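Raw record, unedited: Nitrate/sulfonate/bicarbonate ABC transporter ATP-binding protein
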Amino acid sequence: MVESKTPPTVEASLTALAVSLRGVTKTYDSGVMALGPFDLTVRRGEFISLLGPSGCGKSTVLRLIAELSAPSSGTVRVARHEGEVLPGHGIGFVFQEPTLMPWTSVRENVRLPLRLAGVPKAEGRARAEEALASVGLADFADAFPRELSGGMKMRVSLARALVTDPDILLMDEPFAALDEITRFRLNNDLLTLWRSLRKTVIFVTHSVFESVYLSQRVVVMTARPGRIQADIRIETVEPRGEEFRTSAAYSDYCRRVSAALAPSYSGQSTL
Ligand SMILES: Nc1ncnc2c1ncn2[C@@H]1O[C@H](COP(=O)(O)OP(=O)(O)OP(=O)(O)O)[C@@H](O)[C@H]1O
């Protein structure tokens, strides 16, 4: 007998948990207590930003979620999607550096996670091209990384993270090294992608402006060991765009987030 599955209701899928960290601490072998206790709940499809001073444990949180590191205490739970799970356990990771292989094409760079998973070459190439199209680089599959601008390399890195169709996208200061106009463009394109793909996104940034522009929630962390200082919901008319960036509401949110961040810094400007 074939079992029929009832698809989850919209309400259920909106409230389903994607990630949960409970009482998590992390002390590295060096004795540095990086985190905690730290509690965080992220719902499926949410876009949240983690903001905090340098060294407060933002990357550590991402590494714990990706299971690249284990907590010293507490629990980290990540919802897995049903069916096919490719390497990375349903998680895509984008780092500050695009880390592309210089000796091969953009297509092969994007195909790498599928190649490692043993996906047949033809299928892998088709999926890599699809991922490249989703980040606006359909015409650059045969190019080499050295032929691309910094923003384009970051798009390739994003395509590589998306090619396995992960449920959760972890992004560690991906646009920090880019000029402002390129960064704004990538912010807009990332929001468009998020709206169409409905991934859960956990985005690490040092920029108050970027966090408010992109996220539904900005989670502000204390200085090390990182804990939650504030969890601020950004509510505005969707889809957001340039008019939000120049609105009074945007400035108000930036002020609120900045004020929440201020105690974590000693006398430094947070904007
Ligand atoms: N593998 C490691 N071994 C020892 N200490 C580490 C390790 N990784 C990170 N740390 C330390 O743990 C603390 C938190 O590091 P983490 O990279 O998570 O902070 P962060 O908030 O992402 O910093 P930044 O904003 O500067 O990138 C820092 O003091 C860092 O030096």
